[in-house]
Amino acid sequence: MQRYRLAIQYNGTPYSGWQKGADSLKPAVQDVLESAIHSFVGKDNCGVCQISSRTDSGVHALHNVLHLDLIRRARQVGDVREPHTPETVRRALNHLLQGSEIQVLNCRVVAREGAEAFHARYGALERRYIYRLLSGRSVFEAKRAWCLGLNVTERRLDVAAMHAAAQALVGEHMDFTSFRGKDCQAQSPVKIIRSIDVVHASPDPFHPHATCGDIVHVCVRAQSFLYHMVRNITGALHAVGLGRLPPSAILDILRARDRGVAPPMAPAQGLYLERVLYKDDSEEAAGGDPWWVN
């Protein structure tokens, strides 16, 4: 078998998440992608898609990563053929995925065995998430951001206060129990957030007049996250931005180690997996500033 590393993006709105939920009527991204793979090489000629980050229902991915083991379909019994080229895999899957709102961005051959074996989940060095908030309303953003519906007479989000408050969560090993989802299966609530930036974002250049209010991004970098961690952090920062909590409250919530003292979780539609990085990625990508830093 040949192992391939695929970068994919998808609109999470029509899906139950990467995996299908027990009570969901929506399809799963994994099921749709694996169906395309089976059509391409045959069900018996491929392994299971191993994804880097399992996104929830309604959460989007700009650049998620998976690995996949494939054997090229034989013309006849006993026939052994050269593996497909990465470009063939990319083009074939995108053809089969038309209309699904899932796209393969790129594909490359990676090691399957030995010290250099690539694993999409366990080999990831950094994951980057963006949460998008819109202070007003927009039909174009309703399923792409958390539209707060503030009118022009109400206070806009205090981005400076949100950014200052978020810095209490950055750095050394911290217990994020207060920002952990109730169904989280991680053995430890301790994580290290490398950076959180809360910034104003530019309007969509194709719909510059269709967005009512400010667009704000909460941008978070870490090697790994707890279940619902970014959405719970955003929910607390949202309360700071509206003046319902002082910036100092974020540290108090963290120290409480109690999910019950934190504000409600932000909804799914504003969350994007922006990037997953590995040791073989370019030095610029792995060590440079995130794209949202001007």
Provide a quick synopsis of the model.
This protein has 294 residues and is an alpha+beta fold. The chain has helices spanning 29-41, 86-96, 159-166, 229-241, 249-256, 283-287, and strands at residues 2-10, 50-51, 60-70, 102-110, 126-134, 146-147, 174-175, 190-191, 193-201, 215-222, 271-277. Mean pLDDT is 89; it is low at 283-294.
What does this structure look like?
It catalyses: uridine(38/39/40) in tRNA = pseudouridine(38/39/40) in tRNA. Pfam families: PseudoU_synth_1. One of its GO terms (biological process) is tRNA pseudouridine synthesis. This is tRNA pseudouridine synthase. It is a single chain. The chain is of the alpha+beta class and about 290 residues long. It folds into two domains: about 110 residues, Pseudouridine synthase I, catalytic domain, N-terminal subdomain (Alpha-Beta Plaits), CATH 3.30.70.580; about 150 residues, Alpha-Beta Plaits (2-Layer Sandwich). It is about 20% helix and about 25% strand. It contains six helices and eleven strands. The strands form two sheets. Strands 1, 2, 3, 4, 5, 6, 9, 10 and 11 form a nine-stranded mixed beta sheet that branches. A hairpin with an 8-residue loop joins strand 2 and strand 3. Helix 1 crosses helix 2 and helix 3 crosses helix 4. The radius of gyration is 21 Å and the shape is elongated.
